[in-house]
Amino acid sequence: PVGAPDKALAKKVTKVGIIGAGLMASQFALLFVRKLQVPVIITDLDQARVDKGVAYIHSEIGKLQEKGRLDGDTANKLRALVHGTTDKSEFADCDFVIEAVFEEVGVKQQVFGDIEKVIAEDAILATNTSSLSVEEIGSKLAHPERLVGFHFFNPVAVMPLIEIVKTPQTNDAALSTAFVVAKNLGKNGVLTADAPGFVVNRLLAKVMGEAARAVYEGTPIDKVEKAFAPLGLPMGPFQLIDLVGWKVAAHVQDTMVRAFPDRFYANDNFHKLAELDTVVEKDKGGRVVGFTKAAEKIVKSAVGN
Ligand code: 3HC
Fold this sequence. Notes:
It comes from Microbacterium mitrae. The chain is of the alpha/beta class. It has helices at about 25-35, 45-65, 70-80, 105-115, 135-140, 170-185, 200-215, 220-230, 235-245, 245-260, 270-275, 295-300; strands at about 15-20, 40-45, 80-85, 95-100, 125, 145-150, 160-165, 190, 280, 290.
């Protein structure tokens, strides 16, 4: 319930910090460096994780170059703008820091607490949490007014939406900066309330959870996907779960069950499936055609329960 933020209050972003170097975080780094063309620094728990993230970014820049989307000079410039480190003190001059670490409030509070010790008092902090309370994540900060929710969607390069989440503490500078950064990334920032699952995951969790229940009730997975197709969405529910990752999807389910136990169902089988390396079989076009043998076993035990 706020009006449009005043763009004039937005902070100029000259260096971006990314906490986490997993697939999601590495996709952000690539997007930030391509669209803002400012230095982007990326960190994680250890050097191996950081190196993996940086290698992914370099390889994606190489692919864009091969496709003719980037010329050699620009590709080299972008590579040079990305820097991986395990030394948090290198974040000191970042004016926009976003985290994409494990979806656990305590972990997010901890990483922001560490970063807050080194960054400027007015640097903006953003969390990519997909369903946790942004206010709670910021509750341990010395300056919670600088924290904003900034939730991307998979695949980051192509999905046009960013859910921008304001807490009761978020100040106008943080909110305005979030909207301007989203626009400069070529995305549509949409303001959402700081409520579990915000808007999109609240809806998707329902779709994914009910799709799983349809299977447990005996409808084969490929038939669920087929039944969904005429609705005109780009992917069936199981293809979508596979895209975002079963662990992430299971985690979102849990958050929604905790928040709204009267509207969402606990789904233990989802967690069992998420433990497998591969859950679904796909055809050449990427459409889900069945479960893997290991997944089929779990699902069979769930049918009728
Ligand atoms: N990474 C980067 N780029 C990708 C990509 C990926 N994984 N998958 C596709 N693309 C790019 C392609 O390179 C192509 O780009 P180009 O037009 O510039 O060449 C473009 O996307 C379109 O790709 P395709 O033509 O191959 O494929 P489709 O037309 O089938 O589109 C899709 C692919 C955009 C992924 C589409 O299927 C889609 O929109 N799916 C739904 C995705 C969705 O709903 N995401 C939200 C998930 S929820 C979430 O992330 C929240 C989290 O908190 C859980």
